[in-house]
Amino acid sequence: MKPISQEAYERMQQEDWQWAKALIQCQIDDKRPGVRHLTNRPIINIKQMLESSAELYGEGIAFYTKFEKGPYTTITYRQVLDDVNGMGTALIAHGMKDKRIAVIGETTYMWGIGYLGTLCGTGIVVPLDKELPYEELKNLINEAECSAVIFDSKREDIFVKMMEGGDTGLELLIAQDRRKGVSEGPEGSKKEIPEILSQWELIAEGKARIAEGDRSFLNAQIDSRGMSIIIFTSGTTGLSKGIMLSHRNIAADLMVSPTLVDFLPSDIFFSVLPIHHTFECTCNFIMPLYKGGAIAHCEGLKHIVKNIQEVHPTFLLAVPAIFEALHKAIWRGIRTKGKEKTVRKAMKVCNAAKKVGVDLTNVFFKEIKETLGGSMRMMICGGAAINPEILEDLQSFGIMALQGYGLSEAAPMGALNPENKPKSNSCGIAFPGFDAKIYDPDEEGVGEICLKGENIMLGYYKDPEATAEVIKDGWFHTGDLGYIDQEGYIVITGRKKNVIITKNGKNVFPEELEYQLSFFDEIEESMVFQEAASGKDDTIIVAGIYPDWAMIREKLGDKADDDKQVEDYLWKLVDQVNGKNPVYKMIKKIHLRHTEFDKNTSRKIRRFVEDNKKAM
Fold first, then answer.
1. Residue 535, Cβ neighbours under 10 Å: how many?
2. Which of 382, 392, 389 is nearest to 428 (CA)?
3. Helix, strand, or coil here: 25?
4. What is d(CA 30, CA 227) in angstroms, rounded to the nearest whole number?
């Protein structure tokens, strides 16, 4: 932000405190069932939040992380604040005040320090998707007008090439995981790269400057309402939009969500999703730092089981694909031991006991809990709809599993199920102080879901027309379709742009049929779409299906090598879905796939990629 007088800045902060306290009061006044009436700590921006957390939880563990192979290293809240202050002070000293700085790489401690060191007093942070190719990264660097990029070693060559090309505005390259200003050359030799700074050395430099009296970052003015973050979406259409977020957007989400789910200082959040996604960044990185919990970094998908056993997490936020994989692994283990009937009987006993306040899950399901580290108490699914049976099974095993709803435009929280009163078929209720409504509902109450609150984005970067299309009279039109039941729970039925409209005017939601297909273990992935019917004035509903080929081979044996036999088997499942639906919703054609659908980096299927509409 542009410097203003101290008097004007203090007045702005007083207004921010009034806003934060009013939002806390909304939580106290909210009498809906499931809302926990507690007084959360008011915060006005992420810098103040981090400083107050360091004061409250100073020697508590903020991170379990690995800089090298071996055991986890623990980092305290006080160390985090010191590293952030050092990073920000050095960035300012190197001319980065009020500039845009990109951060890219694996989910690591150094990524977090680069992000916070930029956000909390230096400039505008631009988290980038680590999976993007060179040309797209270069386009986004230019679009966001970035002056520096903080990256990990896997992406060093990309940004060296970009810097040498001279067709970006990059001034500084900063390596997250290099402790010295050198990199590996041919055959293990070292080569000097003076253009690349070491993030470790910058942190040390900044701490030295602070010791000498440099308070440029410590005293930096924070405009809580101005653009501080630019997030480029990875939509299923492949077109990226820059979402502008402020400190207030994030702070609002942090303050309201603990009214629906209890976050404890003793919690260990297991971080497995890409951190550039707003879901992971806000909910599994900044939220624990607000509530005094710890963040444990997963080394990668193939290390999930090992890392869970090392840190014994209590909290897991993930997308449906991870939930589905864990759920399948649990039931596969149960069936291998021939204990399915016994386990299902035990689930009924435990569910009955819970109704009278008795928890027997540690008696019956201790072994299952041990596969998740033995301490897991809360799992929240976001990013897409999930089969409610998965959540209900986990709840029966003694782990509270909830579904939430959000978008990057909402920083990202739109709704969440209260842990005291969850509905597994719903994505939850609007947060206290926020609001949700259905725009232009049909005769069944289904319409576009709209959200309102201080968490809604400032707009799309450099695109006022697109902003005006989605934000109307303060309401953000999400593009998702659904309804709100009598208790205020939101149920999503589909995506507005995905709706199939038949020739007789009926609406078919592909997501609804995909959801019904997901109940079958034999179906790994599906995508429903329409094809024109040859010689008929109508459309055909088609289901592209990627089966669980291991399970198909178990069921069919040698016949699994015959696509016709596999399709016949799948038709028996599809016919069960068709039998529950009216004629206009019936699936009339199957495309069998031997390869997964093409997905974006959020693991969502790209609906408008032609290869996804083919049998492969």
1. 5
2. 382
3. helix
4. 30
- For tokens 């800045």, the residue is 9
- Here the tokens at position 167 are 């067709």
The helix (run of H) or strand (run of E) holding residue 255 is helix 247-256
Q: Report d(CA 492, CA 448) in Å as an integer.
A: 9
The predicted structure's pLDDT at residue 616: 66
**Phi–psi pair at 142, nearest 5 degrees:** -70, -40
User: Which secondary-structure segment (H or E) carries 76?
Assistant: strand 73-76
- The Cα–Cα gap between 510 and 590 comes to 14
Q: Is the peptide bond before 412 cis (omega within 30 degrees of 0)?
A: yes
Pair of tokens at residue 253: 């989400």
Give yes or no for a cis peptide into 388 (omega within 30° of 0).
no
Q: CA–CA separation, 129 vs 274, rounded Å?
A: 8
Q: What is the DSSP string of 81-123?
A: HHHHHHHHHHHHHTT-TT-EEEE-SSS-HHHHHHHHHHHTTT-
In tens, the pLDDT along 159-202 reads 999 988 888 999 999 999 764 444 444 444 444 444 799 999 99
Query: Residue 199 and residue 179: Cα distance in Å, rounded?
Result: 7
- How far CA 311 is from CA of 269, 373, 390, 490, 609, in Å, comes to 10, 7, 24, 35, 40
| CA atoms lying within 13 Å on the CB side of residue 381 | 29
Give strand pairing partners of 539. 532
In the chain, % helix, strand, coil (3-state, to 5) comes to 40, 20, 40
Spatial separation of the C-alpha atoms in residues 251 and 454, rounded to whole Å? 9
What global pTM score does this model have?
0.85
Do the beta carbons of residue 548 and residue 327 sit within 8 Å? no
